[in-house]
Amino acid sequence: MADYxxxxxxxxxxxxxxxxxxxxxxxxxxxxxxxxxxxxxxxxIAVAGITPDNASAFCVLAQAAAPLYDKQLEPEVLNGVxxxxxxLRGDPWGNSGRSSTVMRLFVVRFK
Length: 111
Fold this sequence. Notes:
Layout: E1 8-9, E2 15-17, E3 24-32, E4 42-46, E5 55-61, E6 74-78, E7 81-85, E8 103-110
Antiparallel strand pairs: 1-2, 3-8, 4-7, 5-8, 6-7
């Protein structure tokens, strides 16, 4: 048995998750400045080897949130790409506000 990592045990004392069966790590991180993107709704960032099945992405504030109607950046994992929306991607009318707050993007890949 390894001396490090996470272990979970199921019924009958059977190991379900071990350090060799599951890992996750940050494969990409960057500070994003949406105001510098121009008049676009999203930015595509290439991240080799990621898919919607093996990766996740999230953004956290890197400065105080901009006042009034500023929105959260919304990352979407595609095959080999993280698409970061600076507007609400599900807005059917296309008129949602656009974020201008600087945020840090994290892309995490799972084994």
